[in-house]
Every structure is written in C-alpha cells, then in structure tokens.
Write a structure and sequence with these properties.
Chain lengths: 295, 295, 295
C-alpha cells in the first residue's frame, strides 16, 4: 500500500488535518500517512511548490502527495492529478505543480471530474482524499479525470539570464525555519551559465564571491574556539536541495536574527549573480572566504 | 485495533506528546495514533470542544479520542470517559464534552476511578493512556469508572433567540488558522429560526445579507482576473463544519490581516442575526453580493 | 521492528522532517516513526537535551532516537551513536547526550565513521537515517563507528551546592509551552541536600517556601469557586519529569502572561534554594501555602 503525504496551509491548530487523516483511515485503515508541512503561508503557491519539490524525492516511488493550498474549486481553479517521476500529486491547478513540471516532464495530467459525485465546501477532505484513496487502491487517473496537456504556470519561477550570459537575475522563493533565504537559482543551472568563471552574488548591498557546500565551511578550525567569532557571519551555500541560499551561520530568527531579518531579504526580492572574466587576486579570495563584506 | 486520537494544549515543542505516544506504543505496538491538534490555547475548553466536534466525525466508529486540556485531577475536575455516536472520548469533566453532548445524546458516561492504581502529576500520560489502551483492547467503561448521568456544561454554548424569534444572538467560539471568525450559530439551527426570511448578520459595525456556501462565491468570474479586487473582501459563509463564519477572502493573519484582526472580532464577541419580514429590493441584493459594506 | 523517534530544530514548516520520514520509509516500510519535537530553538543543545531526556523513557526498550540539532559534521562536531538504558541515540557530539549520560552510564558510545560512504549537506537525512535503519535492522554500533570513551559535556548542566550545603544554585534550562520555567534542580538531588530542612526557593525577587506536587494544590476547594482567585498565582512544583519548576497557575503566554514573562525569568537565569535550620512559625506557613509573596 503506497504512502499518502500531506502538504497544506491548514496550520497546526485547526481540525482540518485530523479530519483528513480520519477520512483516509476510514477508507484505507492500513495505509500510511506522512505530514510534510501544514505551515505553508496561507494561499502561498511558491512556498508549497518549493516544499513539495524538496520533500517528494525522498519518498518511495508510487507515493501519493496531497497538496491542500488554495484548493477551493472555482472556474479558474480546477483540481488536477499529476503523475510525474512515478509519484502522484493531487492539487489545484494554480501553479503549484509548475516548478516540478519545469524540471521533469509529467507522464500524465488529468483534470479531476468527480465533483458531481461529491458535494464539498472542504475539497481536500471531500475530493482529494477520494482521489488519493482511488490511486492507493491501484486505480488509474483516467477514471477520476480527463487528460489535459498543460498546467497553469507560476510567473517568475525561473531565473532570468541576460543575452551575453554575464548575469543571472533570480529571486527569493522561500525563507526557511532558520530565517535563511532560498533563491530560485539551482546549482546545475548556475554551473551551466558559470562555465568556470569567477562570480559575485549580490543581494541588496551584500556581495559574496564564494558559494559554500556546507555552513561550517566558513569556520577556520585552526583558530582556537574561544577566539573565533563565526556565529552571525553571512554566507552563501547551495543548500541540500541544490538551491542557492543566503544564510547566517547559526542564526535564530527569534533571538539574534536571521539572514532574512538582518539583511532585509524577503520573498520575491531579487538576488543576482554577475560573472567576471578576469580572475581575482589571491588576497581578495582570502578575505572573501572569511566572509567579511568587502564593500 | 481502533485508532487513538490526541487533542491537547501541550504545544508542538514540549516532550509531552512524544511521551504519550511512547507510552501508548509500549502497551499496544500495533495501534495507530493520530494527532488532531496540540495547539489548543492553554486551558481553552471552548476551542477544544470545537476542534474535537469537527474532527471526530471523520474517524471510523470505535475510535478513541484523548483530550488533554485542563486535565489535572482535583475535586472539581474529575476525569470522565464518554461513549457517544460509537466513539469514545476521554477527558476531564470540565465542559469539553458539553458541546458534543448537546447535539448527540451520549450512550454512556463514566467517572474514571482508577486513580488509586496510578500515581500522577501528568494525568494524560498516566491515566488517559491507561484508559484508552483498556478500551482499545476491548475493555468496557464499567471497569475503569462508575456511571454518571450528567456532565459539566459550558456556559454560553448555544446562541440565544429572542421571544418573537426575530433575532439570534450568537458568539465567537473559534478563530481559525486564516484568522476567520467562527460563531456558535450552526446552519440547521439558523434555518429553523429563519423560515425563509431575509436577514442581516451583524458583527460590530459590519453587516451582511448573504451567507455563502464557499469562499469564492464572492468572485465574479465574468470580470477579467486583472480587473478584480476580491482578496481582502469580507464575507459570511457556513463553513465545512456548518458553523456561521465571518471571513476575509484569501486572508493571511501574518501579512495582510484577517477577519479577526481587521474587523476586531475576538473569542466571546457577539455576532447577531436579525430577520426581516419585508424582502429587499433587487439592486440592494446586487450590491450585497459583491460584498461592499452598505452602512 | 523498533520505533524511530525524531527530535530536531527543523521547525514545522520546512520540508526537512518530511524528507527524513520519506527516506526512512523507503528503507524500512513497516517501521514506525514518532515525532518528539521539531520546535527546539535553533542550535539549542540544552533544550534538546531536556526534551529527549523526558521523552525517551516512555518508549519501549530498543527504540532509536534521532536528534537533529546542530548536527553539521565538522572537525569539532563529530557524529555519535550511544546505547544507554537499552535505547539508542544518534546525534552530534555537541553536549546533547551529556545530561542523560550524567544520570545513566552509557553502555556504548561510537563515533560514526560511515561518512566516506555518504556525501552530505543534510547529515540527518544522509547519515543519521542510515545509522538508524542499520540499528533497526539489528545491526551493531561497531559496524557504523569506532568506540569512544567520553562525550562532550554541557557546561552548567548540574546545579552547584555550597561547601556547608546550605544552598543550591541552579539555573533555568527550559521554558515550556505554558511559559513555566524549568530548572536543572531535580527532586532526588534536592532531597539529598535538603535532609528534611525548611527551605526557601529564590528566583529574582520572588521567594517560595513550599514545593507542590501538582498545580492545583494551591487551590482551596473549601472556598466557593466564584470567590477564589487562583488563576495567575505563582507556585513551585516538581514537574512530571522531576524538575523543580516555577509556574503560574493556568497561565497562557499569549494572553495573561506566564511565569517566564511575568516574573522575567529566562534561559540560563539563576534559581537558588536556601536551607534554613530553624522551622517556620505556623502562621507563616499558612501564608505561603496560599502563595502570596511575603516579601
């Protein structure tokens, strides 16, 4: 029996998530349900797209992912089920799937048409659960919807590259639990444009010339611990999902602040990368690797 | 093996919920536990009553619902187990069950009396888990308690109706994750009093003459999307649980605000419905359906 | 198949927890995963130590506890697996285990050395999950690490006792969901020093001469409910984990305030106990038991 995952903006307090689980277990008592997140910002499509893209890949093939964000049925917000990378996704056709579909071609998309059989003011409970249980029992997408070719895109999903390929202009798509700022610039895309050139990442007035592979790369472990002052330093990493991320070492949004709050970086803000033909002189590289601003 | 659900005010951070699950799985390794909510406001009986009423109904018959809110045993706060609608509820006798019991007569209520067999400064762990596991193994309520007839009521649970039945005076019982404001006026009750008359819902200085069946009913899909300004509009719906709810279309309490914050509506505030003998003229209805205030 | 528990600072929103569960179920579909907490304050070792110590004990012997707090591998932050009290713990060697190991001698500690076999910028997913699944399948610690003797301590973990044993100086190690203030003074330790003497607990300018065994012990149930004013009273209890805790009766951090906010008590603040040779006169005891300040 496949796993059903849940990604919603229902929050941790309301009864919605419990009700959905009760409904699934009423149909399929032996199935496993896994929460991915219920704390997506209300109606935030980009956040939901980022979360599901990073989470689904760890699940077994055949898993069924319910995404309950902005899912009320109306003439401009149809319900879809998508088969992609041997996983199933059930959501509204509001752009959530466009990030994933831009990287991996979907095998099949159907517009769900079982609404005449269910009345609903709570479509995740009444429609998505029914579709998920149908798929979990081995049912095909054709039975619950009619095939469509395209899904609704999210605007500004992919970063922009200028004509002479000297600049990538990306944007902030997610702020994580540590207040770190995630952009839409992914490592393979970056490397395709970079072609080994030096570069400078710019976010507001902050500039960085190194992208680390993990956070503690900025620490010089040859210096005794009590003489170091690494906490609070700014850095850029490709995070575990491969996204370019502007971070603060050991940040805490509640107490000392975070990359988002201290650097003033919010969702949709621009982060750019400029590629430089001439290499930097060595002492500058040294400065940068200790992550001082060099403005 | 039945499902055990958990509804508490323990929050998401502390070890309490994990400890309870460990204790249940230690007794019954194959049982399934489902979280309904752990974010009930501390000691808030009304919130807990609203959450459990809306969630339990989705679970299979025979499910066992532990409610850990204000559950410390003392002379005025006994522990009870209730069988109702073929579900079991374990909680303190502090009013949590009175909302449910006012709609559906309980089949059996017992006051739990196994406390001489367990010492406890954490009654949900030490008492409720034992009772839940006893029921899950097929045990009867008589073994763990003595039958009682009545449970403690919550005051102001049901809305008030005036003598000539021209007005319902309800109150706010819950603010949901979107900041929408849920009242204690349920649809069947409303319709019994309404008898087809026109009406006006009043909350503070805001007035509404239409109750929608879903949120996007306020959108006019004949107008091009870029010319509409529906987000942030006020509306009234019967929510998925059947409760009259004052909402803001696509609200976000953190960013743009919500029905609760923007309209100044809080728990226990009054929401009234006045019934009107004479019908409205058509153009007024038109105005209202676009949800402009018409004060 | 044993249980795997998760205790992290990943928060409730990000995809990290979902990804970890997906990875575990991909390896071991029939295993059970239980969340203990994902809301540890970022990088807060003491909070994580307190949570895991209080939660693990409810789980069956053989359970495997993954602790994902400050777990990025670097020369000063190795990964360890510990067998203790017939439970397994997988975490970074950053002090998290020192609270538990100070009470119960670990049976075995290994420094994990499978990192050459896994690449990782997300060690909980890439390393801890692999180790946990190895143990869950019955594998031994020697296969995934080399034995070490000692773990990194947390400073200021245990309270200080003065030379003539008239004073315990403890500190605040946790603030719970109700805003109650938990110290590192445990009941058996307290009683060993107390030896039956009267005492006075001091926290900032607040003083207490009684430690209760449950919160509602401060209520005089002989007084009619409407004439009592117990909510908001300060008290000291040994909490369900046996830790000395300064609380406010029926507090709510969001609305009326809590012990932490109203008394200005924060993490790392000092709480002391002074032992008094001469007993108090009876009428003073009476005053104290009603929990008035007697400054």
């Amino acid at each position: 029996m496949p796993i059903i995952t849940l990604t919603t903006d229902f929050g941790e307090k309301d009864h919605f998530v419990g009700a959905i689980k009760g409904a699934i277990y009423s149909e399929l008592p032996d199935l496993r349900i896994v929460d991915i997140s219920h704390s997506i910002s209300p109606f935030n499509i980009s956040e939901a797209a980022y979360i599901i893209q990073n989470a689904y890949i760890s699940f077994p093939k055949g898993s069924i992912h319910i995404i309950g964000v902005d899912s009320e049925l109306n003439p401009e917000n149809k319900h879809i089920a998508v088969k992609l990378d041997d996983h199933y996704f059930i959501c509204a056709n509001n752009g959530i799937m466009s990030m994933l579909c831009s990287e991996i071609a979907p095998e099949k998309i159907v517009e769900i048409n079982i609404h005449d059989r269910v009345t609903s003011s709570f479509p995740v409970l009444d429609v998505f659960v029914k579709v998920a249980c149908h798929i979990a029992r081995g049912g095909t997408l054709e039975v619950i919807g009619k095939a469509i070719e395209n899904i609704k895109p999210i605007r500004n999903l992919v970063p922009y590259v200028n004509d002479d390929r000297t600049q990538i202009i990306g944007s902030v798509i997610y702020i994580d639990n540590y207040g770190n700022v995630v952009t839409n610039i992914k490592k393979p895309f970056f490397e395709t444009i970079q072609k080994g050139r030096e570069f400078e990442v710019s976010a507001r007035s902050y500039k960085f010339k190194v992208i680390h592979s993990k956070y503690s790369d900025i620490v010089n472990f040859d210096i005794p611990e009590e003489k170091r002052h690494d906490e609070g330093k700014r850095l850029v990493v490709f995070n575990s999902g491969g996204f370019l991320e502007i971070a603060i070492y050991k940040s805490n949004p509640i107490t000392v602040g975070s990359a988002s709050t201290l650097m003033g970086l919010n969702l949709m803000d621009t982060v750019s990368v400029n590629f430089i033909a001439t290499p930097l002189v060595p002492e500058n590289i040294e400065n940068i690797s200790t992550l001082q601003d060099y403005k």
